[in-house]
């Protein structure tokens, strides 16, 4: 099923996408949660079963008549991200930095992204033109942890995934290069578009999904999740060896080649640009640069 956060008269609500693609409030299933985080962390198997039943119904609100919010507007913790987790993106990244790449990726690159408030599908991304001239896009598959994970084996790791969504890991390349460490350049306000909804893990096999991005209608990224160097199961297992992944933890699995810095000359984002991130089986995440 697909779960989303939306707003009515300024009040955030959690809903499911119905059989007719309408939005049905979870209260229609007799379930009351204060937000998506609460639903992920506290829902029982019985409650999730009731929500799946609700998703087979119709007659809810038209998607065009609601205000979409980021699926998780306020993450419980910083988002855990993976760097250069597609080999072709590793090549373009090293080329941009003018560093020789030996073609090997033995270990994952992990970093965190501060998110005061995530951006909804259809929402605006700030250009931050006063501090950066090289704002970039990164279409990524994201997962949300369903229950606390510690010392999880790779073969059991996907049992800890609540669902999947799309993240656009907006990045300031010049700030990244100035500070060497990526945290600041990845954490500018309104730099985490997240949506349009969560597809629960029981309904989506993410082992081979097309992933694309478009800027002003031009295809920029075009790859497949089968090309991830370190897949979701590996990442969950690896991280859980040393840290507890709490329920509600968000992990973004990295972006393929085709980002703005990978072109000659680079194709960075400007005010008015429209970015669409697409992942097969999930949908589209569309945003405008303000």
From TrEMBL:
**What is a single molecular function from GO for this protein?**
acetylpyruvate hydrolase activity
Q: Does the keyword Transmembrane helix apply?
A: no
The superkingdom of the source organism is Bacteria
- What are the BP-aspect GO terms? carboxylic acid metabolic process
Keyword Hydrolase applies: yes
Q: Which UniProt keywords apply?
A: Hydrolase, Metal-binding
Positions in coiled-coil regions: none
* UniProt cross-references to Pfam families, sorted A to Z: FAA_hydrolase
Domain Fumarylacetoacetase-like C-terminal positions? 79-288
Q: What is this protein called?
A: Fumarylacetoacetase
Q: Which organism is it from?
A: Campylobacter hyointestinalis subsp. hyointestinalis
